[in-house]
Specification:
There is one protein chain. α2 runs antiparallel to α4. The longest helix has 27 residues. Helix content is 43%, strand content 17%. It has a 7-stranded mixed β-sheet, with helices on both faces. It has a 6-stranded mixed β-sheet with strand order 5-4-3-6-7-16, sandwiched between helices. A 3-stranded antiparallel β-sheet has the order 1-2-18. By secondary structure, it is an alpha/beta fold. The chain is built from 17 helices and 18 strands. The two termini are 45 Å apart. The protein binds nicotinamide-adenine-dinucleotide.
Length: 481
């Protein structure tokens, strides 16, 4: 494939890196399992050996982020994904034999699918899980035998620079390399003629990335965000709902693509929910927002965006209920945003139109569950949907009348950790999925191979010119009900 400069003129060093990786891929051919496993092992070593430095870099970038969050939500999912790939990739790599239907089914004709590396894959990642959203997809990319260029976010500069150094120390640039930089580098990166481009980030930037990739017909996987709803049925256990929804909402201060964005709750449970939420927060995060287990909002722009969401909701008639201390100027300076429930939210408010990505939780009261389903279906398809309840028929009703990238029942976000399940969005929340075998397939080409038998099928059917009666008879016999 040509690597002539694209319309956006990729930086020469980016082009050089891509050329280097592509040349190595072509020279060395398809890497055997042991090479893939060695690359995966080097990723695991890097993450385990440098886990403390990585946690410190992320904390520096955020201002405050507990090491427990970086370990459990960035490093652990990556290590689990890498180990899962290491354990299973030999099986995934096996060619699959396929039976054939008549008339191809002749003695000696054989068909199989070979899963081959695509070549060089690009990864563009966001700031909210700056390590996990590089290494988690990298597990799939390497398992499938590809080489990889990674462009992490400029909003976590320390972490991105550290990952660049660590990757350079563990990998030849022809195998895996990290390039750093802002939006301009992102634009040039997205214009490179990769064999596949995986982008994790916002739908707005996702559109631009897809448009740039389209210039080169580069296939894309888009892992985007959205408003993940929680539907609480009347058969749910409210204690578990409060516990799990708030755990998911307040981890990383809500800056999680899978965080519950808003909750649909039976109207008569509203007061109870608010009381329990306050008690839960007081117990889990005493002294919030000034609590060491809490996370800063990543920068002033996002902090002010959250303030603007609250102001807009209040202006339009919402009742905003703090569930912990309102936060003084000191916590404001450290961008520790106090969590708040938003009652009476309506569709004209920004908070119900935009992804919240912070510790604000609209709680929407319903009388009939179908009101919640109708509300969900007026918005773009979310990355995840959460249903709480023991009523199996109701659960089925919710799942068959909505669509989302994934679902966790009676908890939030947990489907992300299941390597056996495809992870990805649908509609506005993205396209294409990865994780485990689905990730391996995503970054492989399923190549059809047919070995012809020694029998001359075309001759037997009379399908070689000059066409005559034999072909007419064969076709008349084949083309029937
Ligand atoms: P973002 O879209 O602003 O940026 C993501 C990456 O794209 C960054 O590395 C950035 O430098 C780069 N970029 C910016 N402009 C670009 C351009 N024109 N061309 C190419 N690259 C460009 O997203 P963000 O603010 O970093 O992350 C938050 C968003 O990511 C939220 O919407 C969240 O839901 C989503 N997200 C999705 C997942 C998922 O797995 N689906 C996971 C985490 C975050």
């Amino acid at each position: 494939m040509s690597t002539q400069p694209a319309p956006h003129e990729p930086q020469p060093d980016l082009v050089r890196l891509l050329d280097l990786q592509r040349a190595a891929q072509l020279a060395q051919g398809e890497p055997p399992a042991r090479v893939r496993i060695d690359r995966i092992d080097r990723c695991i070593d890097l993450l385990v050996a440098h886990r403390n430095e990585l946690c410190e870099a992320v904390a520096c970038d955020f201002g405050q982020r507990p090491a427990a969050i970086t370990r459990s939500m960035d490093i652990l999912p990556s290590v689990l994904a890498l180990k899962h790939a290491r354990r299973n990739l030999r099986r995934w790599m096996r060619p699959e034999r396929r039976g054939l239907q008549f008339p191809l089914r002749l003695p000696g004709t054989r068909a199989r699918i070979m899963y081959q590396p695509l070549g060089v894959v690009g990864i563009i990642s966001p700031w909210n899980f700056p390590i996990g959203l590089c290494f988690d997809p990298l597990a799939s990319v390497l398992a499938a035998g590809n080489r990889c260029l990674i462009k992490p976010s400029e909003l976590t500069p320390q972490t991105s620079a550290l990952m660049q150094r660590l990757v350079a120390a563990s990998f030849d640039a022809a195998e895996v390399a990290v390039v750093t930089g802002g939006r301009d580098v992102g634009e040039r990166f997205a214009a490179l003629p990769f064999d596949h481009l995986l982008f994790t980030g916002s739908p707005a930037v996702g559109r631009r990335v897809m448009a740039a990739a389209a210039e080169r017909l580069v296939p894309v996987t888009l892992e985007l965000g959205g408003k993940c709803p929680v539907v609480v049925g009347r058969s749910a256990d409210l204690t578990a709902v409060v516990d799990r929804v708030l755990t998911g909402k307040l981890a990383n201060a809500g800056q999680v693509c899978l965080a519950p964005d808003h909750v649909y709750l039976p109207r008569e449970w509203l007061e109870d929910f608010v009381g329990r939420a306050r008690a839960w927060v007081a117990r889990a995060y005493p002294g919030l927002p000034d609590n060491g287990d809490y996370t800063s909002i990543v920068n002033a722009r996002h902090y002010e965006r959250l303030e603007a969401l609250v102001a807009d909701a209040i202006n339009k008639g919402a009742h905003v209920v703090p569930v912990a201390g309102a936060g003084d100027s000191c916590s404001r300076q450290r961008r520790l945003f106090a969590p708040q429930l938003v009652l009476n939210a309506s569709d004209d408010m920004r908070i119900m139109r935009e992804e919240i990505f912070g510790p604000l939780l609209p709680v929407l009261a319903y009388d009939r569950l179908d009101e919640a389903i109708a509300g969900i279906n007026t918005r773009p398809r979310p990355l995840a949907l959460y249903y709480f309840g023991k009523d199996i028929r109701e659960q089925r009703h919710v799942l068959t009348h909505t669509l989302s990238g994934g679902v966790t029942v009676n908890d939030v976000a947990m489907h992300y950790l299941a390597e056996e399940l495809p992870f990805g969005g649908v509609g506005e929340s993205g396209m294409g999925a990865y994780h485990g075998e689905h990730g391996f397939r995503r970054f492989s080409h399923a190549r059809s191979v047919l070995e012809q038998s020694r029998f001359d099928l075309a001759g037997l059917a009379g399908s070689r010119p000059p066409y005559g009666k034999r072909l007419a008879r064969s076709l008349a016999w084949l083309i029937r009900r």
